[in-house]
C-alpha cells in the first residue's frame, strides 16, 4: 500500500497557512475569553482517561485541519494494517502485533499462542506468589530497554495492588554498580531470577545473568537449583536452554521490545500484582485499542494527541515535551515514555529511506510532580523556550492521606494554570516581593517576577491508578506514537540507531585490555589511554 507523507498533502499546506494566520499568534487567555465552552469543546473522554486539551495552542479550525491531515495520510488504513498483522515494520519484515497480546481469546491473530503462554505464565506467577510454598521473597528481573522499562515502571505504579511479602528488583545496567548492591541483600533460596531478553543476546543482560549465575553457584547452589531459581522470558528458547534455564515463557518477533510488557516480559508485574490484576492491565489496554480502532478520528484521543504532537513539532517547532505525573507511583513513566517515543520516532528517513525535511521525535523528559516543581519548572515558566507539558492527575489516591492528595492535586492544577495565565509586569509591580533586594528598582524586580504565560499543557485525568486504568494509559501513549510516526511516514518499529554504538563497544572492549590504539580517533585514543593508566 502506498501512503502519503504528511508534507505531501493538501492539508499540510493549509496548516502552514493557518499557522501563519491564526496558529503562531494564538493566545490561550483570549481564546478562553472568546469561547466560554473551550474546555468542553477541547476535551475528550477515552476509556479510563479523560483529557483536557483546551490549554493547548490550537482551536477548532486547527483540529479540523489536523484531522484532515490524518485522513489524507490514510491513518485509518495504516492502523488497520497494523491491527491485522501486516508486516508494517518494513525494514525487519515483521508484523507489529502488541495489540494481539491483550485481545480477548479468539479475537486477534495468534490468539492460541498468546493465551497459551499467558495462562502458563500467570499460573507460574501465582505459584511464586504463594511464598509459604515457593519460599520466594525476592524477584530479580535482569533485562534492559524494553525488557526492563515496562515492568520497572508498572510495578511501583501498581504498588497498592502488590504482594507485600515479595520485593521486586530490576537490574539493567552493565555497570556492575547496578547488580552488586542487589545481590548483597539476597539469599539464593529466597530469590527468583528472571532473565528477560527478547533476543537473549543483549550484552548487558547476558553479562549480568552470568554474574547472577556465578553468585548463585558461589553461595552453594548447583545446576539443579539454578533450574529452580532462574526463569527466562524470551523469543530465543534455545539460548535460554543453553544457559541452563528450563522454565521459559516465550514471545514472538512481532512483539517489539518497547511494546512487550504485555507479553512474557510482564512476568515481574504478574508476580507483583497477581493474575487477576495482570489480566485487568491487559483489559484496560484492550479497551484503549478498541477506542483507537473505532472512534472517529476527531474524537479519537490517541489520534488527537499524535496530531497535536505533529502540530507542535513541525509548525511551532517545539523540540521537547515534558511529562509530569502527579502520582509518585508513576515515577518511572517518563523513562518508559522516552524509550517508547524516542526509540520509535527518533528517525531521519521515511519508509523509502528518503531523508526527511522536517523534525520527528521530540525529546521526552520529566519527573513526578511536585518534585519537578522544585527543580526545573523555573525554566518551563520563565525560560526562553516553550515546552509543552503533560500533566497526569489521579482523582482518587490509593493511600489514606486525603490531605496529601489534595495538596498534590492543587499543585497540579496550579502549574498548568500558571503556565497559561502567566503574570504581567504590571501585576508584579503591584505586589510586594518579600525577598527582593532593596537596592534594586521596583521595575527591575517586577521584570524578574514577570511570567510570559501562554505556555501550553495537556492534563490527563484518571479516576484511580488501577491496573485497568494504567493499561489504558500506556496503550494511549503507544497509539499516539503510532499516529505521529505514521504521519511522518517513518518506521516506528525498528531501532537501527542503537546498532553502531553496540558494534563499536565490541571493538573497544578488547582494546581496553590490550591498549591497542591503532586506527582510533584522537579523543577515544586519549580517553582509553587514561583509563588504562
Ligand atoms: O536498545 C535496543 C534494544 O533492541 C531495545 O529495543 C530493546 O528493548 C533492548 O535493546 C533489549 O533487547 P533484548 O530484549 O533483546 O535484550
Q: Could you give the distance between the termini?
A: 58 Å
Largest sheet entry: 6 strands, mixed
The hetero molecules present are: 6-O-phosphono-beta-D-fructofuranose
Q: Report the helical percentage.
A: 40-55%
Mean pLDDT: 97
- Our Rg estimate from Cα atoms comes to 25 Å
Explain what this protein looks like in three dimensions:
This protein has helices spanning 10-23, 28-34, 38-41, 60-72, 75-84, 111-129, 131-134, 149-157, 179-184, 203-218, 223-229, 237-243, 267-273, 275-294, 301-315, 333-345, 377-382, 402-421, 425-430, 442-448, 467-488, 499-514, 522-532, and strands spanning 43-46, 49-52, 138-142, 167-171, 191-196, 230-234, 247-250, 320-325, 363-366, 389-396, 457-464. The chain is an alpha/beta fold. The chain has a six-stranded mixed β-sheet with strand order 1-2-11-10-8-9, with helices on both faces. Strand 6, helix 12 and strand 7 (247-250) form a beta-alpha-beta unit. It is globular. The N and C termini lie far apart (58 Å). The mean pLDDT is 97. Bound molecules: 6-O-phosphono-beta-D-fructofuranose. The site of 6-O-phosphono-beta-D-fructofuranose has 14 residues, from loops.
